[in-house]
Give the backbone structure.
Amino acid sequence: MNKTQWLTAALLLALIGGPARAAYTIEHVTVIDGTGAAAKTDMTVVVEGDRIAKVTPTRVAGTPVGQVIDGRGKYLIPGLMDVHIHLAGWRWDAKHDGPPVIDHAAAEAALAGYLYDGFTTVVDVGNLPENSLYERARERAGQIQSPRIFATGNLITYPGSHGDAMAVRISDFEKDKALLDRHIAEQQPDILKLTYDEEGWGARPMITLMPQPLLHQIIQYYNEHGIRTTVHVSNERRSEEAIYAGADTLAHPVIQGPVSDNFVRLMAAKKIPFATTLTIGENYSRLVEHPEFLDQSDYVATMSAAERQDLKTTVRASYQARSWTWWMKLMTPICEENIRKIVAAGGVAALGTDQSSGPAAHREMELLVQAGLTPAQVIRIATHNGAVFLGKADDMGSVEEGKLADLVLLNADPLADIDNTKAIALLMKGGTIVDESKLPLAGGAIKKRYAGS
Ligand SMILES: [Zn+2]
């Protein structure tokens, strides 16, 4: 091409605006934006490419862009987020003496289950890197149907402390710095998970605790590499110490007993986000006392019949026999009240399950309502606050202009009943409508939910 032809080509490209991007206009919809703002009726939401381009009352929305989606009688919320998972996809070998067995199909079925249940983001806070980081790479390359995956890879702890089996063990900051450098370089953690718990609670014996100065040094080191941290804690004292060691988030609420008023005020003043993780403890007695929950449609869709049967028989019997089950049943209402008080005071809770299951994440929302929170508060906890937890609230987690178009369109009002967050008409991740018929669900293939193209 000569100079004139080049200029003509450049001008044409500028006029066209580059490669065509998919666009959708959702009209006449009720928007619950995730920030805690009141629901807005008869709204229009325009999605262009992977972003939300416009959120405006329909009466002033102008000409629709791209494909029109009728939102009449429907409710639009941000994609749900679970900020504390341990992705399925590995198990110890039968004799427990060889290396763990990796099962990518199991991981990808669990991830598909999260999409089925309206979750567009999960945060894995401790796993085998060959499981969680493998799937993170596959998700980012667009090779699997999955929520966005943020992951720590290996967690970090003190030798002999909580979570030691899946951790990089650090006993001395200067001596072990090379291990930290390697973790950062090789695993590129999106967030670092540390544990700070000497146990000695419930049915657990006392173990070693990471010294607080070491916790502080490691947190500072990761922060100086631009990486946020989340710290496993279980009681008030260690939670407070973790906060003063610089923790960006806590991976659990206080479960060991009722929190003090001072701690409630501290959490409200610092606004340190914490993952709610009620369902991991409640799940044991629920299975013993109400195994029929496994017949709910989302469990049937996301688990195999054999797995549900095993839970109802073998696993249920083992839970029945464990004192841990009954200790957790006793403590769950206390933990719920701790969460309620901190949220009421202005603290920041983010939905986390400590599991690997979309249905469990919906159970977490039910338990938060049972704790005394309103569905509106719970939706904020399950969306915007998850983004706050990750330090990504500028980019995602709410139905606002400029944010990633991770959206759930619901057939029923989630403010009337939190379980209506399961009444999904359409799920969008990054501006693309999820085709449920392509999800590798453990319960078998299902139809695409949205009838349009
Ligand atoms: Zn955990």
Notes: The chain has a mean pLDDT of 95.
